[in-house]
Amino acid sequence: MTRPSIKQLFSRYKLMALLIAIALIWAFFSWKTEGGFLTPRNLSNLLRQMSVTGILACGMVLVIIAGEIDLSVGSLLGLLGGAAAILNVNYQLPLALNVVLVLLLGLLCGLFNGYLTAYRGIPSFIVGLGGMLAFRGILLGITGGLTIAPVSDDLVYLGQGYLPTQAGLVLVIGLFILTVVLTWQRRNSRTRYGLPLPALWRDGVKVLLIGLLLFGFVRTLNSYDGVPVPVLLLLALLGLFSYMSTQTVFGRRIYSVGSNMEATRFSGVNVQAIKLGVFGIMGMMCALAGLVNTARLAAGSPSAGNMGELDAIAACFIGGTSMRGGSGTIYGALIGALVMASLDNGMSMLDVGTYWQMIVKGSILMLAVWVDVSTRGNR
Q1: In terms of DSSP H, where are the helices of the chain?
Q2: At residue 4, does pLDDT exceed 60?
Q3: Which DSSP letter does residue 93 get?
Q4: Average model confidence (pLDDT) for the chain?
Q5: Which of 322, 340, 339, 341 is nearest to 61 (CA)?
Q6: Are 245 and 251 within 8 A, CB to CB?
Q7: pTM as predicted
Q8: Which of 135, 263, 356, 364 has the most CB atoms less than 10 A away?
Q9: Residue 73 neighbours by CB under 8 Å, 6+ apart
Q10: How far is CA 56 from the centre of its chain?
Q11: Which of 2, 12, 48 shows the shortest CA–CA distance to 344?
Q12: DSSP per position, 20-76
């Protein structure tokens, strides 16, 4: 029996490698900041900072899995966040109506990008590049290049609010119960189809570790002000998109389109509709990220979302999404977003120059793509 190569081990245990990388990054910044990096306050700020990139990554990972790319997400985030601020400040729309209108606008913009790519045959790279310029130009036009402020307190709560301590405890109990139920359902499903079952104690240890991690996570955040609302939104998106991508026909077809588009088309799947839907979802994630970003800043900024596409794409590649499509996970993209946010947060605490931050992030992106190419080989 041949021993697995380093490439095979890394490919098999990529999630573990990412978690080890995060642990090393946190340990390094904790050492350099004399423990300041791992304080509950900074970890809360880190997670709120990660939320915007994480929301974008939830949509971007689906786009990349489908074999496409969207370079307009940063500018679209800024445009939709600016629109939310204008509707709030200038027209005093209720929060619910504001959110619905901005989400619909994001859906329309995403569908427009998807239509040009899927039905008009324009490469998604060019569509995204054009959207990057056009959406930023529209944002500058509607804001006059000025910051729109101050937004209302109810909108600010989306980006700066916290769950009460008791609600955080209820959340962790609910997530633990959900973990137990899903693990039991997975075992029953494997039994029903005659698939090999892992030892019961292994699943038990896994569930216990997840429970301890959830408890530590909520307890740490509760020791500051509670679980931030943007983090709660991100957890909801993680569950929703993970279910959609793995348990629905639409989700499986996204992977199929990215793996082999021609074979998928010959099997009777409407490839164009799948790509249109993926871009529509991406537009809605830009809208949600724009709302959270505007709420965090308590204002609509004409520079909001600048270089946001780099962070979202890098998060996906770092999290194991293949640049060639057909492979990737939602939780991997969110772990990648956490890596990017940790680097941003830690380097800012150390007062590292902006140019060095850009060099490091660009290098991390190239490294992630190189690892993907090296571990997957030619297809």
Answers
A1: 6-12, 14-32, 40-65, 73-89, 95-118, 124-143, 153-160, 165-192, 200-222, 229-247, 249-259, 261-266, 271-297, 308-318, 330-349, 354-376
A2: no
A3: -
A4: 90
A5: 322
A6: yes
A7: 0.92
A8: 135
A9: 56, 59, 60, 128, 282, 285, 286, 305, 308, 309, 312
A10: 5
A11: 48
A12: HHHHHHHHHHHHHTTTGGGSHHHHHHHHHHHHHHHHHHHHHHHHHHTT---TTHHHH
Cα angle 334-199-248, degrees, rounded to a multiple of 5: 45
What residues contact residue 229 under an 8 Å CB cut-off, 6+ apart?
Answer: 157, 158, 159, 160, 161, 162, 163
| DSSP letters spanning 254-293 | HHHHHH-HHHHHHTT--HHHHHHHHHHHHHHHHHHHHHHH
> In sequence order, what are the beta bridge partners of 148?
300
- Tokens 């189809």, residue located: 193
Average pLDDT over residues 296-312: 92
Please give the structure tokens belonging to residue 313. 């794409």
Q: How far is CA 275 from CA 22, 132, 261, 360, in A?
A: 33, 19, 11, 32
Task: Convert the pLDDT of each residue in 155-193 to its tens digit.
Answer: 999 999 999 989 988 988 998 898 888 889 888 888 888
* Residues 6 or more apart whose Cβ sits within 8 Å of residue 314: 336, 340, 361, 364, 365, 368
User: Taking Cα atoms as reference points, which of 77, 81, 73, 75 lies closest to residue 124?
Assistant: 73
Residue 150 preceded by cis peptide, ω within 30 = yes
Closest CA to 38 of 22, 51, 54: 22
pLDDT for residue 216 is more than 60: yes
Task: Convert the pLDDT of each residue in 350-366 to its tens digit.
Answer: 998 888 888 988 888 88
Look at residue 13 and tell me whether its pLDDT is greater than 70.
no
Take residue 235 and report the two structure tokens written for it: 């957890």
- Length of the chain, in residues: 379
- 245-280 pLDDT per residue, tens: 988 999 999 999 999 999 999 999 999 999 999 999
